[in-house]
Amino acid sequence: MIEQNYRNVMRRIAAASLRAGVSAGEVELVAVSKGRSVEEIAEALRAGITDIGENRVQEAVLKYNSIPNMQCPIRPKWHMVGHLQTNKARDAVRIFDLIHSVDSLRLAEEIDRQAARSGKVQDILIEVKTSPEDSKYGIGPDELPLLIEGINALGNIRLQGLMTVAPAVDHPEKARPYFKMLKELFDFANTRLPIDRRLSTLSMGMTDDFEVAIEEGSTMVRLGRCLFT
User: Fold this and answer.
1) SS3 assignment, position 78
2) Is the pLDDT of residue 71 over 90?
3) Residue 96, by phi and psi: left (phi above 0), alpha (psi -120 to 50) or beta?
4) Contact 160, 193 (CB under 8 A)
5) 186, 82, 103, 121 alpha-carbon torsion, rounded to 10°
6) Helix then strand then coil, % of the chain, to nearest 5
7) What is the tens place of the pLDDT at every residue in 156-209?
8) CB contact at 8 A, 103 and 138
9) Looking at the chain, which runs of residues are DSSP E strands?
10) Residue (of 173, 207, 192, 214) closest to 31 by Cα position
């Protein structure tokens, strides 16, 4: 089932990429395994998925420690896609290749400290709140330039790009303005950054809206339900 879902999703990514005028290979797929079993993750890896996303550090640690025993063909790349508290930064740095949800300088500084202790340079994204919903995390668009400046002054963090979560809508088209906003912020940030600091990753789009996100410039989609059900 997961293998067939994966094939269907990749066809949809390819079609959306064509509409956006980019190669399907330019859009990375992160399979979000929140609430899924280690067995399901192993099945996803055997189907060809290479990147696994988790919303909670504690759940991710258990799965991270179990996957090596599942005879998987590869070591997946692990993504933290949920809200991250500063007191979970140590474990997050230990297991995640990319943290999508940095939304304050305080959190970035703690990630930097933990990364320095581990001898690691931690790849991160800044989460931007493009939606007016109170339930959404992220910094406001107006705060983005100062946060980028602060993060780029840290020695053990590598800022790769931006992330957002669009509001729940009854039609994917209604999510388009939020993705368009993040793409504009992404492009504007890159006009102010030196070449060696420019952002490359735009993480936006989930099961209900990822095709619209790709059309608006997403380079990374975070999909759970359409892969695992």
Assistant:
1) strand
2) no
3) beta
4) no
5) -80
6) 50, 15, 30
7) 999 999 999 999 889 999 999 999 999 999 999 999 999 999 999 999 999 999
8) yes
9) 28-32, 51-54, 77-80, 98-102, 122-127, 157-163, 201-203, 220-223
10) 207
**Amino acid identity at 149:** E
Whole-angstrom distance, CA of residue 75 vs CA of residue 20? 31
- Dihedral in degrees, nearest 10, Cα atoms 54, 136, 140, 124: 0
Q: How far is CA 4 from the centre of its chain?
A: 23
Give per-residue pLDDT as tens, 72-103: 888 999 999 999 999 999 999 999 999 999 99
By the 8 A CB rule, do 203 and 125 touch? yes
Backbone phi and psi for residue 93, each to the nearest 5 degrees, phi listed first: -65, -35
Work out the pLDDT band at 143, boundaries 50, 70, 90. Answer: very high
Contacts of 152 (CB under 8 A, 6+ apart): 159, 193, 197
Q: CATH 3.20.20.10: does it fit domain 2-228?
A: yes
How far apart, in whole angstroms, are the C-alpha atoms of residue 73 and residue 88? 29
Residue 31 has pLDDT above 90, yes or no: yes
User: pLDDT band for position 148 (50/70/90)?
Assistant: very high
Instruction: Give the pTM.
Output: 0.97
